[in-house]
Amino acid sequence: MLDQAFDASGVETAIDVASASQVFRSSSGARVAALHDVSLTVGPREFVSIVGPSGCGKSTLLRIVAGLIAPTAGAVSVLGSSVGVRRRDVSLVFQRPALLPWLDILDNVLFPLRHMGRNVGAAERERALGLLSLMGIADFRAMRPNELSGGMQQRVAICRALITDPRLLLMDEPFAALDALTRDELGGELLRLCALQPKAVLFITHSIAEAVTLSDRVLVMSPRPGHFRRDCPIPLPRPRDLGVTREPLFQELCSHVRDAIA
């Protein structure tokens, strides 16, 4: 782990998964083992990506960490508490932005605050506009989601996830449905946002280059039942931008991760 220091609240780890396993039942009643004996620790300001073959349990693990499903076995804590505890300092970004079509872009970003019952005043609107500006879409704040491209909608979804200033950001292949250019652009924006607002990030992706570009560590998962095959530190200096992809060390690290998957 890169960051062993306690964060401001005294929490040493953002995520702590101990020997978690997950077994599902198929429609025929057969047992399907998705994860087996998975352990994971993520520091309070660490960016960790998980890569691996399709169906290896990456998204299942993220959903366990998010508290959306309970593991069949093992223990999971997030920011020092059981995942069964409802938290307002954890945000999720999925592959599809799932914006509310009847709200404009600004109100979509503000929606989590209203859902929490918080008052939305001038300060909250200013914060939302600041996030939209960082993502380069403040000029579209009065539009509806269906008036934006897929990449722009995903920028809004990231702003929505960040409006509560979460201490932990869970991202499940958030750029997978986008074209290569937009994917790179959003990766660069995410690097910039994480530099401005450091937080723990657990990022699921199929892209080795994306994982190496963004992360402090890349974890390689085996085929189902998934378990971690290798923990690959990424010693590229921060602050980091997409120019890092031209460095020889970047290519070496990508090859190291690729070899671990093969």
Outline the structure in words.
- The protein has helices at 58-66, 105-115, 122-134, 150-162, 180-196, 208-214, 248-261, and strands at residues 15-25, 31-42, 47-51, 73-78, 81-82, 90-93, 168-172, 200-204, 217-221, 228-233.
- The protein has a domain at 100-165.
- It is an alpha/beta fold and 262 residues long.
- The chain has 7 helices and 10 strands.
Brief overview:
The chain has helices spanning 58-66, 105-115, 122-134, 150-162, 180-196, 208-214, 248-261; strands spanning 15-25, 31-42, 47-51, 73-78, 81-82, 90-93, 168-172, 200-204, 217-221, 228-233.
Helical amount among residues, as a percent range?
25-40%
What is Rg? 18 Å
Run of helices and strands: EEEHEEEHHHEHEHEEH
Low-confidence stretches: 1-6
Q: Spatial order of the strands in the main sheet?
A: 6-7-8-3-9-10
Give the rounded overall mean pLDDT: 90
